Structure formats: C-alpha cells, structure tokens
Amino acid sequence: MNAHTPIDIDARPLTGSAPENHEIVVRDLRFNRKEKPRRWWLADDPVGTAWHNALSATFPRGEAFFIESVKAFRDSAPPHLAEEIRKFISQEVNHSREHLAFNRAAVDAGYDLTRIDAHVTDMLNLAKGRPPIVNLAATMALEHFTAILAHLLLTAPEILDDADPEVATMWKWHAVEEIEHKAVAYDTFLHATKHWPRRRRWLLRSISMLSITRRFVSHRIDDTVDLLAQDGITGWKARVRVLWYVFGSPGYLRKVFPAWAAYFLPGFHPWKHDDRYLIPSGVAGLEGYA
Length: 290
What we know:
Elements: H1 46-71, H2 79-108, H3 114-125, H4 132-155, H5 165-180, H6 184-192, H7 198-229, H8 235-247, H9 252-255, H10 257-262, H11 279-283
Helix pairs in contact: 1-2, 1-3, 1-4, 1-7, 2-5, 2-6, 4-5, 4-6, 4-7, 7-8
C-alpha cells in the first residue's frame, strides 16, 4: 500500500451497518511491562515521540468518556448492536489500561504529563450535565478521528520506523481495534436518533465534529510543544517543528484531511470506506503479548 494514497471516501456504499461477516475481536494484550521505552522511543526523534506521548496521555480519560457515552444507549439497542457495544467497551478498557502503563513509562523517563491530564479533565468537565445524545455525538466525532489516524498508521508504517519494537506493536494493535469498532458509536447514534429528521441528525454530528476538531488540533499541538519544552526545545522553532510534523512530514493531519472531510457528507457512514484489509498485517506478531 502506498503510504501517500488518500483514503477513498466513496469506496463502498453501505446503509448504516458493518460489512458482512465483520467481527470485533477483543484482544487482552499487555505491552511495555518488562522493558521500558527509551525517552525518545521513536527513532530518537523528540518531536515524533512528543506527539505520540501527547496523544497517549489523553487516552485513558478519553476512552472512559467514550465508554460512558455509548453505554448510556446500550439498554435500548437491538441485540446485534448491544453486542458490538459490549465488545467496544471491552476493547476500550484494554486500550485505557495499556496507555496508562505506557504513560507511566513516559513519566518514569522524566516527562510530566499533569498539564495534559488537566486539559483533558477540563474538557470532560464540560460534558457534565449535557444531554447524553450530545456526548454521544462528541464520542462519534472523536472515534472518527481515531479511526482515520489508525488507518494512517497502518498504511504509512514508516511513521513508526525505528521505534522501540514493543511500543510500535502497541500502537498497531490499538490502530487495528480502532478500525474494527470504528462504526459502533456512529451506529449507536443512528439508532438513538432514528426518529429524527435527517437534517437535524446531520447538523448535530457536523457541529460536534467542528467543535471537536478545533479543540483536538489546538490542544494536541500545545501538548506536544509542552513536552518538547521538557526536553529543552522551546520557542517559536519548537512550535514550527511540531506544525511541520503534523502538516508537513510525515503530515499526520494533512494526510487524514480527505477522510475527515468525508464526515460532513450527507449519507456518510464509517464503513463506506472498508479498510478491514489492514487488519491481518496489523495483528501479525501479537501472539507474544497475551
């Protein structure tokens, strides 16, 4: 697969469901317990390391929010969707545990993640008291973000070239499962709003994505700059290096833009882009981590 191939947003027309015979597999795996990652575990690159560490620092609290948002609608879901929600929750619990372990290793390597954790806490506090459907819409948007970033990681393996092998494997495992369950929150939203007019449904998911995107991009860049400062890399040059990493090379956010924009199309569904072909190579080598 060419790493620079854009995601085809018109790959396969579906009607709001996973492809036939699709399965969400719960893999209860553990990483980074025996050998701790290096401080700059990604090719001795402080910028790439800081970007991924900043992402990881948000996952435990963020995924707990995802779980609660989707679980709020589980009891009213039809049996097949309820089972997918159960597996979604199991996968997210495992992701949270493994990123907690990874984050502890980053702290052991000398990084202070408390400011990032405070940012995430402040954001999640905004969700308190909101209607459950609004929180589900936010989860749906963030799940689309994680799915398209997961797609990028698996189609552009050079991003993790020269990373500590166990850390790279953890990220690939996480990416595989994000692809597997990428439509669960979306299908839960479709079921919960099945009596809504289409325009109302589209407006809520679009407004949620725009709000999420603004915060996600600005906060992750700020968090990455914060971690670089802890390595003594400061000033405007530090921010330029981060912006180049996400918009230039390897271009995390630039490369996922077409798939991000597809979210706003009327009739969008995550499985209109069927990328299950990435799963076999993504799970290769996981046997030793049970």
